[in-house]
Amino acid sequence: MALTACGTRAEEGGGGAEGGAGGGGGETKTAVIGVVAPLSGDLAPLGLGIQHSVELAVQQANESGAIPGWTLEVQPEDDQATPDVGRNAATSLSSDADVVAMVGPLNSSVGQAVQPVFDAAGILQVSPANTNPSLTRGANFDTAPERTYPTYFRTCTTDSIQGPFAARYLYETAGITRIATVHDKKAYGQGLVEAFSAEFEELGGEIVAAETINPEDDNFSAVITSVGSGDPEALYYGGEYPQSGPLSQQMKAAGLDIPLMGGDGMYSPEYIELAGEQSEGDLATSVGAPVEDLPSAQQFVTDYEAAGFPDPYEAYGAYSYDAAQAVIEALKVSLPEAETAEDAREATVEAMASVSFEGATGPVAFDEFGDNTTRILTAYKVEGGAWVADQTDEFED
Questions:
Q1: Averaged confidence pLDDT in the chain
Q2: Which of 28, 122, 165, 247 is spaced 20 to 30 A from 390 at the CA atom?
Q3: CATH homologous superfamily of domain 2-157+293-366?
Q4: Residue 26: left if φ>0, alpha if ψ -120 to 50, beta else—which one?
Q5: Which residues cross the membrane (predicted)?
């Protein structure tokens, strides 16, 4: 029932929310905002939070008549957190003439796969969760940044900020000087560890071991033995909670009783469930300030709960809502001048560069690369079986 109210397309391709934009019951044109995210599998809680948050923004836009003469719909596509599946989802959305923009994906590796597909179709893409810096600034993002896909934007901050933020927290706040690192070889995990390691060593810290795992691994005994031989004071992990939770549980059981820290990919209640009681004291960073404590996010939280979605908004809900709101702001410029949604694609991308508003997560605006100009992050600690915010700061170079 909640999904229908939010204007999500039915599997049969049915119409949008009743009444639509314009409010008079007259015929309206349709524009579709796609969502590409993991809607099944281990990362589904994060993906469903993304989907529902976009649906909430679209529902509100339709109810308010934000774009007279137009009804917005949401078309969710499951990427299964896999680049090839994500590419197929992007191809499907791109071939639909009603699709004018999309929100997603969650995984940076999927982001790399879908970027060229949406760019070739001239479709605006806004990710609430991709944090690998190369997606906006190219392969040489640290020395010679160059924007490769003008259709791509994001509302979250990047690993070139998140990694150093975590390094400073461990070295300066926690007083930890010896670290082991592990990553899952994917774009997000590898990039996060590289950014973290560079900053940690520059601060004077020592990386005593650097190991990798495969994303499908579930037995980490060999890696635990290897990193433990370096006598680290903490382990920094690049990847997501389906692997980091069991890694934490197994290393504590093996006697390596040190904190495990990771990025936003493990900031979820699912991590604590997987890691168990021994996760107490583990750490994670995530983009932005805690949503529950942000005055700007309280209406989003209230509205999301009132909408009756079957899944929580999770770590990226507010950023997904702001991504959808940014798309809607651009559509307010492009759609009134267009005969069809497909006609509005180029103008929507152009309008996005000038979008600026106060969102649920705070100020939303984009720099010349398509990155959000806000660079606030939070370090969380597991206390009493829950993530508790320990430090929130705006990152300064």
A1: 93
A2: 247
A3: Response regulator (3.40.50.2300)
A4: beta
A5: none
Say whether pLDDT at 381 is over 90: yes
For the chain, domain boundaries: 2-157+293-366, 160-287+377-394
Whole-number pLDDT of residue 7: 57
Which candidate, 99, 148, 143, 95, places its Cα nearest to that of 124?
A: 99
Q: Model confidence over 183-195: pLDDT tens digits?
A: 999 999 999 999 9
Residue with tokens 């583990």: 282
The pLDDT value given to residue 397: 79
Whole-model pTM over 0.85: yes
Q: What is the mean pLDDT of residues 299-327?
A: 97
Instruction: Name the architecture of domain 160-287+377-394.
Output: 3-Layer(aba) Sandwich (3.40)
DSSP result, 89-129? HHHHHHT-TTEEEEE--SSHHHHHHHHHHHHHTT-EEEESS
Residue with tokens 């909408």: 307
Report in angstroms the alpha-carbon separations of 326 from 106, 255, 304, 320, 363.
17, 48, 18, 10, 11
Domains 2-157+293-366 and 160-287+377-394 share a fold: yes
Give the helix ranges, DSSP H, for the chain: 2-5, 44-64, 83-94, 108-120, 134-137, 159-168, 187-203, 221-228, 241-253, 269-275, 298-307, 317-334, 345-352
pLDDT at 11 over 50: no
